[in-house]
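Friendly challenge for the regulars: who can give me the structure tokens for this chain first? No prize, just bragging rights.
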Amino acid sequence: MRCGNQEFIFGARTYVMGIINVTPDSFSDGGLYYSPDKAYERAMQLIEEGADVIDIGGESTRPQALPVCAEEELERILPVVKRLEKVNMRQISIDTRHALTAQVCLDAGASWINDVSAFSYDPKMVQVCRHADASILMHARGTPQNMQSQTQYTNVMSEVSSYLKERVEFAAESGISISKLIVDPGIGFAKEAKHDVEILGNMSAFSFDKIPVLAAMSRKKFIKAITGIENPQDRDVCTIAALSAAVLSGANIVRVHNVKWAKEALKIIDRIQATVYST
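First reply, four minutes later:
Bragging rights claimed.
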């Protein structure tokens, strides 16, 4: 799989996706990188720290967040994409549910589309993503406004896996190669802490058809539920603990705010993987 100028060989090591929210209201870093200049500076910092791909989002999907139209989303993130493309940085993922945003950003130099709705929000998205290097399909229920009222599962592993399989099949039937798909079980999206913990310890269950699995646990609310840590920016140590569990249980990519710590931790985790678990 490619992401712009970089080739991803899953199984060789764990890849790191750095988060940039060009929003005023994201749960952890809302407002910090709202201007294009600050977002660009943050992107370059994350690249310097070793991020393999930068995930840029212009719409918060935290619980109770209000929706943002594609036009406003583009006003937020397109200037950042264009500046990165000028310095030949094309390892860019766009975190969006909108086909218009995805299309314009792909044309401007982005490579991946990270759709939290797994092609279920905008019917045009699947056609747009035929031209992406890869698409990330995430499990969720409802919308940010109501997802926390939809956390009832009989068997969370089975239900999340079935949903992701169905979305992968839909994408394949719509003309997207399975080799260009990544799945994300959606930590924190319509899930309680007990569900998130079970998922983090069983990531390989979602790697059907050898599709890479992304773990996006960074600073999320399950950490507060377990540890009591209120401030999301104080949850990086716990994020690394959760990241370790996710990778050792089968995750191929981790999506994090603190790239520097993730890269350092993965030097150990990947060595353990290669030494103990490889056959």
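The radius of gyration is 17 Å. The mean pLDDT is 92. Your move, everyone else.
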